[in-house]
Fold these 3 entries.
Entry 1:
Amino acid sequence: MDGSVWVGLAGTLVGTTIGGGLSIWASVVAQNRQTKATRDLRVEEKTEASANEAITQLYVIKQRARDFPQEHRGLDAWQKELSRLAAEMEPTVLRLRDDALRERVEEVLGYMDMVYELTDYPAHGGSLMLPSEICRYGLDCLGATVRNQPLPAPSQAMLKAREIDAFERERMAIAREEADR
């Protein structure tokens, strides 16, 4: 055989090997991309499902917060019910992937443990509707996340709740200092 035939065969063999290797590499890359896309889609679906579940639960809490008892003796049961509903929502909140969203919803749920204080300080902006308005802010945050929008700024209700919380913490610190004397 002539040398040019050997060179032609070698070139063909090298070209086939390189082409086959590139084809296998491209298949592996495409499969990895598809696997990642599938995994990302599952994560997105789970995240949206958690947010939707949180919306449903927080809406129930909001509705219960609006049912302020007419008689003073029903106040303790009402506050315990709101605290129980907030505690039941905690596992759902833990599944929220966005840290800022999770912190805001946890803050909203934390205020459900101090409903009496939120409704009993009219001088600091407290009102009977404040717990419900706080829940509305939590719903706004969850809705923004589901719609892929930025989280809203704290509402007036949240600012009032923070003010009342700070006042209550200060009052408790003073009470502890006086008890220590």
Note: The CA atoms of residues 6 and 12 lie 10 Å apart.
Entry 2:
Amino acid sequence: MEERRRDESGTAPVQRRNEAFRLLCERLRKLSEGRPQTPSEVLLRQSRDER
């Protein structure tokens, strides 16, 4: 089996970073489940109106 190490720059292998990102996405979806979300268009309009 291939040994996984950090490369010389100190960053984790891409596959491990992708897995960590996927887990964070799942966690965020669970936290925001059932909550209303404001569409970005509405937020942009509100921001424009405040200026």
Note: The chain has a mean pLDDT of 82.
Entry 3:
Amino acid sequence: MPTDTEVLLARIERERYRLRRARQAMDGLLAQLPDLGRAVHPQIMTTIGQADGELDALAGRARRYGVNTARLEEAAARTEATTRVVDEAFALATGTLARSWGLDDGACTEADRLIAELAGRLDNGLARPTVPGDVEFLHRAAYVIRRRVPDHGVWDLPVMAHEFGHVLTMQFDLYDPVTNTARPLGAEALGTWPGYSAQQAEELFCDIFATYATGPAYPCTMILHRLDPVSDATGGPAGTHPPDAVRAAVVLETLHQLTVREPAEGRYRMAHEQLTSAWNALREHVSASAKLSTAQESTVRLQVTGTLGLLGRRAQPLRYEWRNAVLRQLDQALAAGGKPDTETGYQIRDVLTVAWLSRLDATGARPAPEHLETWARALI
């Protein structure tokens, strides 16, 4: 009959075998798809190596000192950690292969281009590759962005700006004059949003950033496609994301404050009014629990004001620049199903803005062009 030490060592070895398989999968990905493989390989291999080293160290302690409660608890924790690492490695491998075979219909290429456009305003090294996934998120183990596939195509592309916001939270440090140290933005400074965890506060920061970086496009996506108007507004810090009602208030308040900061640009104001009207119409049918309190609304205004101030100091080049001449040419091109003047110098964010504004302005008497999404994708 095996001893308790032998059982524990066998379990540890099984977990290390899983990590070796994950390493093989990533090496195979690098060999078959060098370009994409190089983008995802180093970070995940480092994570695999760390997980393997921790298991090896645990095995060494078990051989030398035997089994006790602490080592059994550590083994359970290391098993869960291994599962997360292995799942991420195989998800990356299969997602990258799916992308290479065109199963995402070019969605990740579009996402890469938008993210590169944003990163290029600060540091090209911030650009992260994307692979298909079931939800959008930035995985910290491999530092790769997932795009939900299939999603709503061009209309969901602005969500990638939110995910790029997570990249920034890992790059920004805030100087604290009290302690004379730098505090990580994502982990500590954003934990000051009352009633929400640091993770939830980071999501709200990314909502503000995505609006700052794309103008009306991200609020259009969230208000018209994503956020649930009947969800409870009083959620606690246990979930990964704050309540949808709070997120809606945040993107609308951000758009409003951008309007105030750019009083000469009436189109921001018009988009804010249209989206607010649409959201309020939906919320006429909800219960009281889905509505923000006066205190919550006040907190949203204060937090948005502070975050926009931070972005103005640390990420001002990423602010979406409203260029009337460019947008007019793109609007004409989309309406006619053609291409704008090659000298226009438009950005992907300009295309998203014009496409969404065309939908906002559409009525029964003047519907949006049927080819709108097709030509928007062609311009992107």
Note: Residues 158-318 form one domain.
